[in-house]
Write a structure and sequence with these properties.
CATH class: Alpha Beta
Structural class: alpha/beta
Distance between the termini: 45 Å
Shape: globular
Largest sheet: 8 strands, parallel
Strand order of the largest sheet: 1-10-9-8-7-4-3-2
Number of helices: 11
Number of domains: 1
Length: 310
């Protein structure tokens, strides 16, 4: 319900931090801290942790707590941090969110309740879920509208929740025709839509910016490249923004269409930022040929990730 007529509290590039593991699958907190330092040095306006691109689905509850505390303490206020607290259960999600807030989270990102391929709840329960979550905290809620949840969230429903639920103010739109949905969300929600954001690794970033997006939540491998697009657009220089989008789009495309959540760790490992790029079992490792294509594409752009630790 925050007024978009006032400056949004958060805008710009908030990439998702990957979770770093050792080869044996244990958490690697030393690499995690270097990952965070790199992402900040690369120009991230803020960070998001424990998202799907962080492999949150392979983490135990105690590991989530450890990562949240470790990262927030290490960031130490340098940039705002969004903590993903998604859970099917309203009570569990609210408790996760309160703990994240108490540890210093600037915002929580939450998907609608879902489990597996078929378990969903009706629209009335979705609204009540976010209302109860809002009552439990005093920081903004970002609704992640992504196909993985399998829950249709119309622009009208999102706008209604923004108007009626106090902390619901930010929206990460990752559905098909994202720009059209962002435009309709802003039209319907007006000042209640504090943060209409782009997602999905910035594959639709330029159309989304044209539609009114004020933030981008991308992969964590090259915030410096995404900043060049977003900063130019925010400064009113659409031509430069478009040129940078065209320049970085091959790497964005390789990440989005070929590598997925493994891209950021592969780039960070290649550049010496982290010690190991392996996902946690049973998630399969990236094919060597796919990795080679990612690195080749990245080297043409000379992103900081390949130079930061050298």
């Amino acid at each position: 319900m925050s007024a978009m007529s006032q400056a949004p509290r958060f805008k710009g590039v908030f990439p998702v931090a990957p979770t770093t593991f050792r080869e044996n699958g244990e958490l690697d907190l030393a690499s995690q801290k270097r990952c965070i330092d790199f992402m900040i040095d690369a120009g991230s306006n803020g960070l998001c942790i424990l998202a799907n691109f962080s492999e949150q689905f392979v983490l135990a509850d105690d590991e989530r707590e450890l990562l949240t505390r470790t990262i927030l303490e290490h960031v130490a206020g340098r940039v705002p941090v969004i903590v993903t607290t998604t859970h099917f259960g309203t009570r569990v999600c609210a408790e996760r969110s309160r703990r994240a807030q108490d540890m210093g989270a600037a915002m929580v990102m939450v998907m609608p309740p879902y489990h597996g391929a078929t378990i969903r709840v009706p629209e009335a329960q979705v609204v009540e879920f976010y209302a109860r979550l809002s009552d439990a905290i005093s920081i903004p809620i970002m609704i992640q509208d992504a196909p993985v949840a399998g829950t249709p969230l119309s622009a009208a429903l999102l706008a209604r929740m923004a108007r009626e639920i106090e902390q619901v103010a930010y929206f990460k739109i990752e559905t098909a025709q994202a720009a059209a949905k962002l435009r309709e969300l802003i039209r319907l929600g007006g000042d209640a839509i504090e943060g209409p954001w782009d997602g999905e690794e910035a594959i639709t970033l330029m159309p989304d910016l044209d539609a009114g997006a004020t933030g981008a939540m991308t992969g964590g491998g090259y915030p410096d490249g995404i900043r060049r697009i977003v900063d130019a657009y925010a400064a009113g220089d659409r031509e430069t923004a478009h040129a940078e989008y065209v320049r970085w789009l091959p790497l964005i495309n390789v990440e989005n269409r070929q590598c997925g959540l493994l891209a950021a760790k592969a780039l960070m490992h290649e550049g010496g930022v982290i010690a190991c790029e392996a996902p946690r079992h049973p998630f399969p490792a990236m094919h060597p040929a796919t990795r080679a294509g990612l690195i080749e594409t990245a080297r043409r752009l000379d992103p900081l990730v390949l130079r930061w630790a050298r």
